[in-house]
Specification:
The complex is a heterodimer.
Chain A: H1 2-8, H2 19-45, H3 50-53, E1 63-65, E2 67-68, E3 77-83, E4 89-98, E5 101-105, E6 113-117, E7 121-123, E8 125-127, H4 132-140, H5 143-174, H6 180-189, H7 195-208, H8 215-219, H9 226-237, H10 241-249, H11 254-265, H12 267-283, H13 286-291, H14 300-308, H15 315-347
Antiparallel strand pairs in A: 1-8, 2-3, 3-4, 3-7, 4-5, 5-6
Helix pairs in contact in A: 4-15, 5-9, 5-12, 10-11, 12-15, 14-15
Chain B: H1 13-71, E1 73-74, E2 84-85, H2 89-94, H3 109-140, H4 147-159, H5 162-173, H6 178-185, H7 197-225, H8 229-237, H9 242-270, H10 274-279, H11 291-301, H12 307-341
Antiparallel strand pairs in B: 1-2
The chains are: A alpha+beta, B mainly alpha.
């Protein structure tokens, strides 16, 4: 045992512990709890029944009070572990509670009512995962629609982003033409015009084009990302021009050069942009909130925010829907996180 | 290649899926060869650039320019031709204050409340964000076991959507939430955090830091890793104190990178909206009403919407952002040159 502890706390080169080592571990372990804790708590809560969610203090795992159907009573009654006056223990069902006295019956012999002080009873609890939090939104709400809308927007926007941005990046990296610098500056300048600055006129343009209350109105304004053009252009600049010259000598058309030489060679950068784009579009909120006002067109993010802003928030459904909304992003995090982190470190762009 | 694998014959599934794409591409090729023959390489360059420029033009540049026109018109009509020209009235209205230090004395008091809130938010959030990200990056830059795991830990919330972030924390900060449970088990009174003006403001600052600090940590970490290791080795040989190493080596060499990060955080902080909108909705009262929400509500959400006023406010915000972005470009240019010289 002590050797195991020694092994865990050994330091490289046999050096002792410095105060910065302690700060490091406190910071990292604290970070682990603060960064993952809230999301884990959300997932745990999403399996609780409404009754369990309303409890304070809350339990870590989803427990519910066991119920029993008793003859002559319409509703199932809560079961309690009771210590009777003579010191013996019994499992009784509660009929009603008046002040500190609880009226109870034995579920097996429901005839006689036993009065018990509430201090002498503890509820019979069992763990139960409320799967209906997940299944009911799919059947009772438009949740499937929202999910479909989000998937449609994300996939379509990402595909268009990849094609349009790679074409522009190809032109800007491999052709000499008048106005190239101007086009580059123009794209750079759009970094300065975020949505929050142009949302009023953008809304009117989208309406004039007949794209208000239309998923294409969400997709189109987002697909020409300056960041995308930037990442792809930087990458294409590293592809040697000799390849293109050789292809031209073999009578390849420019489109074929783009499609069969440049695109396959840009695959790593395209992958990074695709991952970025999926996360961006999946998470988009303000613009869909403005463009989509019909319920059946909401994306997941908009639907969630609308439901959670209602007066009587049905938290058990909201929590479960939030978990479902998190899933794609968590998958990206688990499997593709390395691409994103190297992408950000390389370009400094999000 | 896959066809050579024993037990598999014919096309693999992914190759099969590519067949229609291949077909489409060769169909496009024929007319494009004609374009190439007629207009030359320059024509092809235009063709490749066109879709992107068209979308930029329609959905970014055009709105950018008509935004000025919007800010000069009044009324509730949405389409520009239906709106009446009012000159600089909207700006005058925004700036119509008896006392500029007191938002309540202004005609558009909510605008100035939003400006004030955003100002405080930016100051607090940027300072704390840089502090936390810097410390985390310094720690991650140490000789750690499983560094990529720890880096991922701090990066996790960055990928979450703002709506999910808002809901996660709304759930923790509510009356029966985890925070109150924690306080309760240490014997403190539970508190309804988001109903309290000061605490809900603090919550928006804290939550936005939680959600984004991993991103900036990553950039700072990249900057730290670019500092030559031999400098540290030399310092260690001289027995230099840790604090001195930080102040004399790390900080000066990190400065260009750090300045870019600061401006980036600033730009994002000025536009804060999504998480806050879900978490507090701008409330209680107007205590967490920030600029973007003011523009959104003035332009779209309220009964008496005023797109002209919203446009004017958004242009004022745009001016601030343009100044910040130019600052960032100016700051990042020299570091780029340094990189290319290597």
């Amino acid at each position: 045992m002590s050797r195991a502890v020694e092994f865990l706390f050994r330091r490289k080169g046999g050096k002792g512990w410095h105060w910065t080592d302690i700060v490091t571990w406190v910071w990292l372990v604290g970070g682990l709890f603060i960064m993952f804790g809230p999301a884990v708590w959300l997932v745990g809560s999403s399996f609780k029944s409404p009754a369990a969610l309303a409890e304070f203090p809350p339990t870590i795992l989803p427990y519910v009070t066991q119920k029993a159907t008793v003859e002559a009573y319409d509703k199932p009654l809560d079961l309690y572990e009771v210590t009777l006056e003579d010191g013996s223990k019994a499992t009784l069902a509660e009929v009603r509670r008046i002040g500190v006295v609880s009226q109870m019956v034995d579920p097996v012999k429901p005839g006689e009512i036993v009065k018990v002080n509430i201090a002498n009873r503890t509820p019979v609890r069992q763990m139960s995962f409320a799967a209906e939090n997940y299944t009911e939104p799919f059947t009772h709400f438009d949740f499937v629609r929202y999910l479909w809308n989000s998937v449609f927007v994300t996939v379509t926007a990402t595909l268009i982003t990849l094609v349009v941005n790679s074409m522009a990046a190809f032109a800007l990296s491999k052709y000499e033409f008048r106005g190239r610098t101007f086009a580059m500056l123009l794209i750079l300048a759009t970094l300065m015009v975020p949505l929050s600055v142009i949302m009023v006129p953008l809304y009117s343009i989208v309406s004039v084009l007949g794209l208000f209350n239309n998923l294409w109105g969400v997709i189109l304004p987002t697909v020409a990302t300056p960041t995308g053009v930037f990442i792809l252009r930087q990458y294409m600049l590293t592809i040697p021009d000799e390849l293109i010259d050789a292809a031209r000598m073999d009578k390849a058309s420019e489109w074929q050069i783009y499609w069969r030489i440049i695109l396959p060679l840009t695959a790593p950068a395209l992958a990074v942009l695709a991952i970025f784009s999926v996360v961006w579009r999946w998470n988009d909120f303000l613009w869909p909130l403005i463009v989509l006002s019909r319920k059946e067109l909401y994306t997941l993010q908009v639907g969630l925010s609308i439901y959670s802003g209602e007066l009587n928030v049905q938290w058990h459904f909201i929590l479960a829907m939030t978990v479902v909304t998190m899933i794609p992003v968590v998958l990206v995090f688990l499997f593709l996180q390395r691409f994103i982190t190297t992408g950000i470190a390389g370009t400094g762009l999000k | 290649m896959t066809a050579d694998v024993p037990g598999r014959t014919g096309l693999s599934l992914s190759e099969l899926a590519m067949v229609p794409v291949r077909l489409a591409m060769s169909f496009i090729d024929a007319p494009l060869r004609w374009v190439q023959k007629t207009f030359g390489l320059g024509g092809m360059a235009t063709f490749f650039l066109l879709p992107n420029m068209l979308i930029f033009g329609i959905f970014v540049l055009l709105p950018f320019f008509i935004n000025f026109a919007y800010s000069m018109t009044g009324g509730t009509a949405l389409f520009l031709p239906d709106r009446s020209f009012v000159g600089t009235d909207q700006y005058a209205r925004l700036f119509d204050c008896a006392n500029y230090l007191d938002p309540n004395s202004c005609v558009e008091d909510t605008f100035w409340t939003a400006v004030g809130n955003t100002g405080w938010f930016v100051v607090l959030q940027v300072t704390l964000m840089i502090g936390f990200s810097l410390v985390t990056a310094l720690i991650l830059n140490r000789d750690l076991r499983a560094r990529s795991f720890w880096r991922a830990v701090f990066f996790f919330p960055v990928l979450l959507s703002p709506v999910v972030v808002g809901l996660i924390w709304k759930w923790i900060l509510q009356r029966q939430g985890l925070l109150n449970f924690g306080l309760f088990s240490f014997g403190f009174e539970p508190h309804v955090w988001l109903n309290d003006r000061t605490w809900s403001f603090a919550a928006t600052v804290g939550v936005s830091i939680w959600a984004h600090m991993g991103f900036y940590t990553l950039i700072i970490l990249a900057g730290l890793q670019a500092i030559p290791k031999d400098l540290y080795e030399a310092a260690e040989m001289d027995g230099t104190r840790t604090s001195r190493v930080f102040l004399r080596i790390t900080l000066p060499l990190l400065m260009p990178n750090l300045l870019v990060v600061i401006v980036l955080v600033l730009i994002r902080a000025v536009q804060i909206f999504d998480e806050v909108y879900v978490l507090t909705g701008g409330g209680p009262g107007t205590s967490t009403l920030y600029l973007t929400q003011y523009i959104y509500e003035t332009g779209f959400a309220t009964q008496l919407r005023n797109p002209g006023l919203a446009a004017a406010a958004s242009i004022l915000m745009g001016v601030v952002l343009v100044v910040l972005t130019l600052l960032q470009l100016g700051l990042s240019r020299p570091s780029e040159k340094k990189g290319s010289r290597k």
